[in-house]
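Re: your question from the hallway

Yes, I did run it. Sequences:
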Amino acid sequence: MITVHIQYFAILREQRGVARETRSTPAGTAAALYDELRARYGFSLPRDRVRAAVDESFVAWDTSLRDGQTVVFIPPVAGG
Amino acid sequence: MFCISTEPLDPAALQRTLADAHAGACVTFEGWVRDHNDGRPVLALDYEAYAPLAEKEGARILAEAREKFAIVGAVCIHRVGSLRIGDLAVWVGVSAAHRGAAFDACRFVIDETKARVPVWKKEHYAVGDTAWINCATRGDHAAAVKS
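Structure:
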């Protein structure tokens, strides 16, 4: 198990019900963590509509997670 | 400079930051909150951003613009918070020696910003419901997830 800090924005924040949490997880990758959270909290967005960011940089879904990192899942953007 | 701002934007002040003796052209773009989207009357918008990553990705876009086009300066500022109809949501300004590069780079910066920067928009509709734009999933409204 590792412990990661997760921040939620926009539709994911509303569906999770909190803006941030610190969570212990068996997930080894960003993809596994999103799948775990989606199954637990019923996120409407499938993983292929979302991007992952670790420690303020976009990362590939198969990126390994390490203890203490900050993970953010990025729903489809809509600036402008 | 690419910034996320919680305060209202001041186009005149932003444009002054581009002043440069080498510049013979300045093209600016203003994105305003409009009163309709996809055929539905809109009352207001909430914007939110993952600011650290938004500013990092935005800086990357401005660097790309400098590589692709012969420009002198480029600035983009995006508002977050609750905005009303007519409010300024995003401002882009590009200066260049000649107008062609300034027009092209300004278009590039706003297009890439809309496509890549982690900013989200929630619309509040006249009939009382809301939706996060671009977050539709199967069975939802074509352009939005209703909540």
